[in-house]
Amino acid sequence: MATGTPVHMLDGYKVLDFTRAVAGPTASLMLAEMGAEVIKVEPAPDGDPTRGVPVMKDGRSGYFVQHNRGKKSICVDVRQPEGLAMIKDLLPHVDVLVENFSPGVMARLGLDYETVKAINPAIIMCSISAFGQSGPLSREPGYDTLGAAYAGIASMGGEADGPPYVPQAAIGDVSTGAHGALAICAALLYRGRTGRGQHLDISLLDTYFHYHEASVQMYSLSGGEINPFRAGSHSFYLAPVGIFKGKQKYMLIMCPFDYQWVTLCEAMGQPELAKDPRFVTNADRVKNLAPLVEIIETWIRSMPSDDAALEAMRAHRVPVAPVLTVAEAVAHPHLRQRGTVRRVHDRILGDFDLPGFALRFSDVPRPLELEAPLLGEHNEEILTKWLAYSPNRVKELTQKGIIRSGSR
Q1: 3-state SS of the chain: helix, strand, coil percent to 5?
Q2: In terms of Cα–Cα distance, which of 399, 352, 394, 401 is closest to 372?
Q3: DSSP symbols for 184-205
Q4: Given this model, what pLDDT does residue 19 score?
Q5: Average pLDDT of 7-30?
Q6: Spatial distance between the Cα atoms of 146 and 361, rounded to a whole number of angstroms
Q7: Residue 171: alpha-carbon gap to chain centroid
Q8: Are 356 and 342 in contact (CB under 8 A)?
Q9: How far is CA 260 from the centre of its chain?
Q10: For 226-239, what is the mean pLDDT?
Q11: CA 126, 192, 96 angle in degrees (round to 5)?
Q12: So what's the pLDDT on residue 38?
């Protein structure tokens, strides 16, 4: 449906967004960041549950704002016949429908893919779920960390003799949303060549399993003789690759290849270590990890400061980075200069920092200025402009509770 001269990659495309929480909203947020017009369908009467979790200022949720900038909001009771009819009337006007309910919910609402396709054969319907639309786990409730548990990812985090752990970040949810956005863009390209829409099945578990860069093939190719395990702050199969403690801070050093180990030895002023029989090959270094870590950490602590140790390694092109806190990362000049950390404005929250858009386009060098909607803020705009409803009809639907609006 995109026409005219675009102002961004997806300018002119229209998206009907039934998502909530993080994974689904990430997919539609990425589409909005690329210029698509995203209509967020929120359930009446209260809208997306994340509008209240957590509230940061004057009843406005920073969580909701982060994941829903650039979207328009209509608040509809789809379980009522008039609300469902309204959504069905909107379907011919959109290119994409995104939802992240548990499998079966859209069918119970009367908006399964076959129904949607019958109304708009060219539509791209993207269903994002924890475990997929099919399979033994498909009907189980799911969240980010549950996917990490089933994928074998959680088992790889933590000390070897301790419990597994998961990071305090929505890595799986955000990655699944990004996979969904990629699939949508590919499906739009495919539709441009064939004229056909399709149903996309994007799973958190499938996405998480991708993160095994070596463990799965190592286990399979060895016939099970290599059984990957969590190894705390260090890799179980590469060395030195892990987190090392300095005087005041931690730093991550990655020297998995022999030539990188040589440069680290030179940076430490101990080139003879590269020929030490305990450390010549990666296999040697993994076998003798404990003394290797002790040697490196002893050198770091012998330096005037942790920054001095970091600079010595950087001077030799050793892959190294300080382990920054959230506060330190937000203030880092590189993240600031690139817009990785972005200062945004919200009409209620004011100015504050958010993660920026990770994609960069030479034709659109500046990110779009986006704002999260108030609840049902665009009810009248969408219904009058898209469906030619009269103001009186909109008022009537509001009085019946079919559509709602709010100030947050």
Answers
A1: 40, 15, 40
A2: 352
A3: HHHHHHHHHHH---EEEEEEHH
A4: 98
A5: 96
A6: 34
A7: 6
A8: yes
A9: 32
A10: 94
A11: 25
A12: 98
Tokens of 331: 């203030």
Which amino acid is residue 312, in one-letter code? A
Give the CA dihedral 218, 219, 223, 225, nearest 10 degrees. Answer: 100
Tell me which of 173, 201, 306, 346 is the catalytic residue.
173
Which element (helix H / strand E) includes 17?
A: strand 14-18
Mean pLDDT on 259-274: 97
What is d(CA 327, CA 223) in angstroms, rounded to the nearest whole number?
Answer: 45
- The answer to whether 60 and 348 have CB atoms below 8 angstroms apart is yes
DSSP 66-125: HHHTTEEEEEE-TTSHHHHHHHHHHGGG-SEEEE-SPTTHHHHHT--HHHHHHH-TT-EE
Does pLDDT of 273 surpass 70?
Answer: yes
pLDDT at 66 over 60: yes
CA 383 to chain CA mean position, Å: 31
Share of the chain above pLDDT 70, in %: 99
173 given a catalytic annotation: yes
Would residue 224 be called left, alpha or beta, if left means φ above 0 and alpha means ψ between -120 and 50 degrees?
left
Q: Both tokens of residue 290?
A: 């404990």
Q: pTM for this structure?
A: 0.94
**Burial profile 86-103: b = 16 or more Cβ within 10 angstroms, e = fewer:** bbbebbeebbbbbbbbeb
Confidence of residue 114 (pLDDT cuts 50, 70, 90): very high
* Cis check: omega of the bond before 304, within 30 degrees of 0: no
Say how far residue 236 (Cα) sits from the centre of its chain.
27
Q: Which two tokens stand for residue 306?
A: 């942790």
What pLDDT, in 10s, does the model give residues 331-389?
A: 999 999 999 999 999 999 999 999 999 999 999 888 999 999 999 999 999 999 999 99
Task: Give the residue from 193, 241, 252, 191 showing the smallest Cα distance to 213.
Answer: 241
Tally helices (H) and strands (E) across the chain.
Answer: 17, 14
Residue 132 neighbours by CB under 8 Å, 6+ apart: 103, 138, 201, 203, 205, 206
| DSSP secondary structure, 286-353, as one string | HHTHHHHHHHHHHHHHHSS-HHHHHHHHHHTT--EEE---HHHHHH-HHHHHHTSEEEEEETTTEEEE
